[in-house]
Design goal:
This protein is an all-alpha fold and about 110 residues long. About 50% of the residues lie in helices and about 0% in strands.
Length: about 110
């Protein structure tokens, strides 16, 4: 019983440190290092919108489908994170893409 509990604790600690989170992704976009500016709002508003969209998508199970954040998306084309898999792919894209590309139409949505 004690070993099973210990393994469960070790597994959950390992999962917490894996990959980007909504918070780290939104902070990367709108604080350091990218500090993206947008006419859509002030930094605090952008971070709040980003967090709300990301966390809402994580609550909905689904598949990636046709969502391709690694491809250029014009600003005129709205993109919405619809589910947990899309949010995960988006967070990975933001983590792996340079700031100038993030501000230039890659890893959409960027608010």
């Amino acid at each position: 019983m004690r070993i099973v509990f210990l393994l469960a604790v070790v597994s959950s600690v390992a999962l917490v440190g894996c990959g980007p989170t909504c918070q780290s992704t939104c902070n990367r976009l709108y604080q350091e290092p990218c500090n993206i500016q947008s006419p859509a709002g002030q930094k605090e508003e952008l971070i709040r919108t980003c967090m709300d969209e990301c966390e809402s998508a994580l609550k909905i199970p689904g598949e990636v489908g046709n969502y391709t954040p690694n491809e250029y998306t014009p600003a005129s084309e709205p993109v919405t994170l619809e589910n947990d898999h899309q949010a995960a792919v988006w967070m990975d894209c933001v983590a792996e893409t340079s700031c100038e590309f993030l501000d230039g139409g890659y890893c959409a949505p960027v608010w």
